[in-house]
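[Meeting: bench + compute handoff]

Bench side (C.D.) handed over the final construct sequence. Compute side (W.E.) agreed to return the predicted structure before the next meeting so the bench team could plan truncations. Sequence as handed over:
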Amino acid sequence: MQVTRPSHFPEGYAGCQAHDVTLSDGVRLRLVESGSPTGAPVLLVHGFGASAYQWRHLMPALSADGWRVLAPDLPGHGFSQLALDDGQYTRAAYARRLWMLLDALGIDRSPVIGHSMGGAVAAEMAWQQPARIERLALLSPAGFGRVPWRARVLHLVPDALAPVARAFASIAAARVVLGDVYGPDGTWSPRDEEELLAPYAQCDIYRAMLRTMKEFDFRLHEDAALARLPEGTLVVFGTHDGVVRPGDAAARVRAVPRGRLVMLPRIGHLPQVEAAAQVASLLLEFLRSPRVAGAGSAD
């Protein structure tokens, strides 16, 4: 079964709307928003190969608490602009464009929550413009755990062959991917399969995914870089994460000033989905805390 229709998201999620934002460099991002436009902003950064749909459970919880929730599709992902020049699928380039997004929205300062590859992008945002990160939360973040290099062979694939992968975009393939990312108790719906596949009806996305695999730095962060993350950064992992393996996570978090690590038993790579209520509660408590990252105050 091939999926050719566009994503339904955010249809069915009350208060969520999608629109496009053109950045100062001309790149177009699809942005899903929820909550009051006058509420304090919070930016959600999804992971590799995903889209704003990854935040479908967290967005309503945050907006109900009064936040203006911003969930873009990253460049090269979802229904944002897919075709970019070589060299524009790096961690630094992704972070710069998210700063451009906040600039386009007139937002000077915001908390940032990143997942998986998006966790590494969120960390890069903090290194680029630390004064603008109010606080930082990272879920299953690349850079804090080891990423299996099963896809290393993709570095050898010519870009011209990337569209061939479209022939393999099927419900069966979506089930394999979801089986890899969920923990032992994880379940998903037919809509989850369809939403995962929907962007892959676009031919340009295959080159974008290949370029990201070639250009993005998924390696562990060095201690010196971790020491420059916002004070009190929160890191959340599932004990059964097989995508970003958390064996090194405790050592990485110890290098962050007053960093905090939360391990969720029997959860895989999608804590914000598999343990949606628990993660929402954890993040709301974190966001409500009086500490402002980088200010040196206690939790």
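W.E. noted at the follow-up: Residues 292-299 have pLDDT under 50 and may be disordered. C.D. will use this when planning the next construct.
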